[in-house]
Amino acid sequence: MSMQLLQEKMETAPLFYRLSRVLVESAETACGLIFAKCTLSEARLARLKEKISGPDPEAQFYYASNYGRLAILLPDKKLSYTHYVSLSVKQYLQDGNIPGGGLLITSFPECGVPKEADVQAMHDMIADEADNDNPILIYNQPEAKTKQSTILIIDEDATVGELLHSRLRMKGYEVYTADNGLDGLRLFKSLSPDLVITELSLPVYDGYELIRSIRGEKEQYVDCSIMVLSDKRMERDISACFEMGVADYMTKPYSPVELEARIRRLLQ
Fold it and tell me: Where are the domains of the chain?
């Protein structure tokens, strides 16, 4: 692999993490993305920002000058609006006779749940575009139409629920939360989730009652796995949960990376 190609691949990561942050902070958990191959001076980039900030003051710009890639993030915007803005970008590049080529648009999660590989795939799609007369390309994630695994999180701690909800949504899961055992059981029966992640210390129904109730429905919900994520560290609690049919047990504080790895294993 050439040094230039290696640098280009390394530059996709910062853009992906910025995109991920926008999605997490977005009220609608949506974000339009315009990705362009072009060469811009600081002055031309400033003028483009001024042009785009007219119709959309929330637009965020990412420009990697070392290999000529421009990304414009549009928080809370869907594909139709993203296409509208991209027409202004394309016109600006053409009017200024700015060297470059391809222009690509997408909207997450409308076109799929973003992964770091998507940014590299978009880069590859426009890498061979030679001029600004090419049509605007639309990126649709290949896995966008596959079935999402459903996860139900039951924890009285709202912070834990919110963090897990945001992080797991970003990983492509359909996520629901409850803050007590009774609501958790009701959601479980209505959703038939693929995985339940529960604390043991819960109001109304505690975690043990919840697990017994779920396992009591084992004929109907045989494909659902249960993971305990709890402050309880005593061996007797851990042993009791496994005896009740729990698939995995993690204690708090926990490693998000390890948790995600265990979730992937349970949902394979």
Answer: 3-138, 150-267
